[in-house]
Amino acid sequence: MLRDALGKAFRFLGYTVQYGCIAHCAFEYLGGIVVCSGPSMEPTIQNSDIVFSENLSRHFYCIRKGDIVIVKSPNDPKSNICKRVIGLEGDKVCTSNPSDFLKIHSYVPKGHVWLEGDNLRNSTDSRCYGPVPYGLIRGRICLKLWPLNDFGFLRASPNGHRFLDD
Description:
This protein has 166 residues and is of the alpha+beta class. The chain has a single domain (1-163), classed as Ribbon (Umud Fragment, subunit A), CATH 2.10.109.10. It is built from three helices and nine strands, in the order H-E-E-H-E-E-E-E-E-H-E-E. It has a seven-stranded antiparallel beta sheet with strand order 1-2-9-3-4-7-8. The protein has a two-stranded antiparallel ribbon with strand order 5-6. The longest helix has 29 residues, at 2-30. The active site is at 40, 83. Its main location: mitochondrion.
């Protein structure tokens, strides 16, 4: 009887570890569902929109300019932020605010990306904290799930003019 109980307990523990590992790999490498908060990505992503974030792109270094990514916040490592990739390593980016009279440009250093929110007037992004290390990228948002009337792939940046090809 004790042997039966121990056998069942160890089998249960084995299945728990097995399914836990599968779930970890799925969320780490495949992706997951994310609830976005804050106004920085409006009008593309509204507060409380639900999106799907895939994680394979970051592992295969397939992040491109214009992609919207989930990133560990450089200011608060316990939270994630949602921003658009404006520049990759070596790209020339405009580092000043849109309202500034003089435009300042610089280059994104190796191993970093330049991130900005679509709502330039209400976004804390690389213009505040500088280039972000590529290793902080958690995933790439590829699909909006909620609200249903806005279901589908995300639209292009309303700030496409800030992408420089120099």
